[in-house]
Amino acid sequence: MQINKDGEQTRREKSNITTVMEFILLGFSDVPQLQWVLFGIFSFIYLTILMCNGIIILITRMDPVLQTPMYFFLSHFSFLEICYVTVTIPRMLVDLGTQKGNISCFACAAQMCFVLMLGGMEFLLLTVMAYDRYVAICNPLNYALVMNHKVCVQLVAASWVSVIPVVIGQTYQIFSLPFCGSNRINHFFCDIPPVLKLVCGDAFVNKMAVHIAVVVFIVVPFLLIIVSYGKIISNILRLTSARGRSKAFSTCSSHLIVVVLFYGTASITYLEPKPNQYEGMGKLLSLFYTILIPTLNPVIYTLRNKDITVALKKLLHKLLT
User: Fold this and answer.
1) 235: pLDDT confidence band, cut at 50, 70 and 90?
2) Residue in 275, 113, 286 with CA at minimum distance from that of residue 187
3) How high is the pLDDT of residue 78?
4) Is 117 helix (H, G, I), strand (E, B) or coil?
5) Cβ(229)–Cβ(256) under 8 Å?
6) Between β-strands 102-104 and 184-185, what pairing exists: parallel, antiparallel or unpaired?
7) Measured distance CA(186)–CA(210) in Å, rounded
8) What is the pTM of this model?
9) Sign of CA dihedral 72, 78, 79, 81
10) CB 195 within 8 A of CB 282
């Protein structure tokens, strides 16, 4: 009888230990003297991202010259960037302003789910954009037929359909695990590596699931992009006209820069072999691909794309006259 009582008490204690109602995002609490400086910087960056990506969406919808598959995908990418930063930056600004990082377990799970969903969608969309460039340069005569509007919509829809169930399942799996000890997440948003560090017991299966998802949504799309650009470059080098080669390269260069920046930082973050290295370098890398790259993307596409530059001038002329 005593054994049963002891066993019941142990189960109650274990249940109390593993039930975490909220987490604390430490964010940038290690530099309290810079809280308001960072608040101002990130507020400015967030407004810049919203404005610049909003302008890209606007001009790609309004300008008849930009009614092509390439700009259709670019407008969707800009929309994803707006959603992506909105999931992380406003929450971070609230934490900087209040100097509190309390976040409920459900809110943490929701944030992680949306970050992974939108991030995974960006990876797939970048792959679709590479395929679009491949068809445009390597099969120009059939481009309008192959990349018609229906196909473009189907490619975007297929990307959403493939990423949503995987991300929801993975998020549910992670937050079904028992958490114990500290509930402090040494990050500015709920990301997989720092959350898994708080899990009790063995999280090997979950870590393997993360690596499989990384292979499916980062490594495989990146390899497809490499194959596409390998064929694109081979085709461009066969062109006899220097002007034609320059024009072909200019249509791909912006996309290629974004691919290298986004895939590089994200793959290092989620494939990092030593968890102890994550807290310092991981936070910096996350800051890079969640804030800096979305800020650079509109600049990269605007400065290196003549069609967008011309469309911007047209828009400014309409607004000023």
Assistant:
1) confident
2) 286
3) 92
4) helix
5) yes
6) unpaired
7) 19
8) 0.85
9) positive
10) no
